[in-house]
Design goal:
It is a single chain. The chain is of the alpha+beta class. It is built from 11 helices and 15 strands. Strand 4 and strand 5 form a beta hairpin. Helix 2 packs antiparallel against helix 3, helix 5 crosses helix 6 and helix 10 packs antiparallel against helix 11. About 10% of the residues have low confidence.
């Protein structure tokens, strides 16, 4: 029986390795066993293929979960991709190899221009807070570049054809050898296209692509926040040489709400109340995401007190949970009062006069103690104490 292969051992990583660590390990191992660094070494080529197979499984969350549970036997066919040649590996993982294997090495060794993916594009969509809380389907419009209909993407004027680049021989890259390395760089003459356009298309001016406005529907899940991005696969620019189109990223923007402001998944609503409502308690109407509801203000509510309504805030995306709605009470003091209102307030002040005076006296005594303890050279505290003592005696006589 053949020895069981451990993909984690192949890449020399722990089973707890993150996606970035797996990717970094693969790049390191692929560089070590690359055929251009090991010419004529069949064992290195096999290890190079095995590293690619290990990465193909461990970089895919679903395949990785199956492999962690059942090993290679749990995967379809008992293994990963099963690359037959080095070119398949470069084609499958060009995003991982990047410039390291695209420029330093052969990028697949095919000698032909590799199809490039189209560029990604971005657009914005604005929704209100209620739509963000419940989820909504919105139509978005944006511009992307599509294959020119006049030249079919060739970039050449109708009736003409692009000519093969003589500088790179149509490969799109030029190659230089330096020791064990085979260095390849983008052809400066054709820009990597492998062809030169002598008579460009008047519609796209030789680019092979023309801008076009597109529109599509995007489903926005509940609980999104401003700045979040939704991806539309294949919604970006088309490729000028037969590659896959790029993606479109929709950036969410939520409008300012007249009552709520947001902290994470919690919503905060500040409600103004009067002095009498705060002191005696009251039942008032308050806004929620589900409409206006009646809530009770407890007697003795202080300015800034918060009433928490659990689970009434914003839902958490992809989870069956939600934040809270925090009602914060703000006691309002009127800037202008009518004569009748002023008369009532004067009677209230007279009624509360003793208790208010007592609180002020207590604060003054505390302040003087602070001055004596921290500023022993300051005599003002003693003078104020004598003045207040005389004032107290005068009040008692009266």
């Amino acid at each position: 029986m053949a020895e069981e292969i451990d993909y984690y051992d192949v890449l020399e990583i722990e089973r707890t390795a993150s996606a970035d660590e797996i990717k970094a390990a693969y790049r390191k191992m692929a560089l070590r066993y690359h055929p251009d660094r090991n010419p004529g070494n069949a064992e290195a080529v096999e290890k190079f293929k095995l590293c690619a197979e290990a990465y193909e499984v461990l970089s895919d969350a679903q395949k990785k979960e199956i492999y962690d549970r059942y090993g290679r036997a749990g995967l379809q066919g008992g293994a990963g991709a099963g690359f037959d040649n080095v070119g398949d590996i470069f084609g499958g993982f060009s995003s991982v190899f990047g410039d390291i294997f695209g420029d330093i090495f052969g990028g697949g060794g095919g000698g032909q221009t590799r199809a490039r993916q189209g560029a990604d594009v971005r657009c914005r969509v604005t929704i209100d807070l209620h739509e963000a809380a419940k989820g909504v389907k919105k139509e978005v419009r944006y511009r992307r570049r599509e294959v020119c209909s006049a030249c079919g993407g060739s970039g050449a004027k109708a009736g003409t054809q692009p000519t093969t680049c003589r500088y790179c021989g149509g490969a799109g890259r030029i190659q230089q050898s330096s020791g064990v390395f085979s260095i390849q760089r983008t052809c400066p003459k054709c820009g990597g296209r492998g062809v030169v356009i002598t008579d460009p298309c008047p519609t796209c001016h030789g680019a092979g692509l023309t801008p076009k406005e597109v529109k599509c529907d995007v489903t926005i899940p509940p609980g999104v926040d401003s700045g979040m991005k939704l991806r539309i696969p294949g919604g970006g620019d088309h490729s000028s040489n037969g590659g896959a189109p790029g993606d479109c990223y929709v950036i969410i923007q939520i409008e300012k709400h007249p009552f709520f402001y947001r902290e994470g998944q919690d919503l905060i609503c500040q409600i103004p109340i009067g002095y009498a409502q705060a002191a005696l308690g009251a039942e008032i109407e308050a806004p929620t995401l589900d409409g206006v509801e009646k809530i009770k203000i407890p007697a003795g509510t202080q300015n800034g007190d918060v009433l928490r309504l659990r689970g009434r805030g914003m839902p958490t995306p992809r989870r069956n949970t939600a934040g809270d709605l925090l009602i914060q009470f703000q006691i309002e003091v009127p800037k202008k009062v009518s004569p009748e209102h002023a008369a009532i307030l004067r009677k209230l002040a007279e009624y509360e006069g003793d208790s208010v005076l007592t609180q002020r006296k207590s604060f003054g005594q505390t302040l003087r103690g602070f001055v004596r303890d921290f500023f022993p050279g300051d005599k003002s505290g003693k003078k104020d104490a004598k003045k207040e003592e005389q004032s107290d005696k005068g009040e008692k006589k009266a």
